[in-house]
Protein: Group 1 truncated hemoglobin
Organism: Duganella lactea
Amino acid sequence: MFKLTRMATIGLLLASTLAVAQTPYTDDATYQGLGGKEGIHKIVDSFLTIVLADPRIKDNFADFDIAQLKVRLAQQLCEFAGGPCKYTGQYRDKTMDGVGTVRDMKTVHQDLQITNAMFNALTEDLQIAMEQHQVPSGVALKLVAKLAPMQRDIVTK
Ligand code: HEM
């Protein structure tokens, strides 16, 4: 066995973009490997701390509701890891009351001018957060590969 570096993982991520269907796992091994809901919440907390300090991407998050983003991200990562959660895509702008409009990932990110380099930076930050929480590298790689197909929707520049 060999340990994949983050760069190698990103390469694999790009290579797998077309190969991996954007569907949750049918078993919950990845979810368990992340430490379940509690583990995912800790990872998301660390992830956002790293993102908000990352000069490559932090400015993109300046005007957004980070607490809400954490909740949504945790929901989504849990679902994609095969856990008992459902990301609804229901988006509530912080200036709104109530439930708000339903937006998909493409719509959420379309005005953010996101490049491949920014997408890779964010993926790297997620991997650092998972390393901080001792997620096994095989589990981390599976989650990253699962998110890879989103690049098509999220990168617009
Ligand atoms: C695999 C990559 C990504 C995933 C899985 C992802 C996931 C998400 C999710 C689940 C939300 C919450 C949407 C909601 O409120 O319902 C969100 C919002 C957001 N994402 Fe991403 N994202 C990714 C890449 C990026 C990148 C590369 C950037 C910028 C560098 C970015 C910037 C943002 C911002 C600023 C918001 C808040 C938008 C708003 O509240 O209107 N995302 N993302």
Summary: The chain has one domain: 6-10+28-154. DSSP finds eight helices and no strands in the chain.
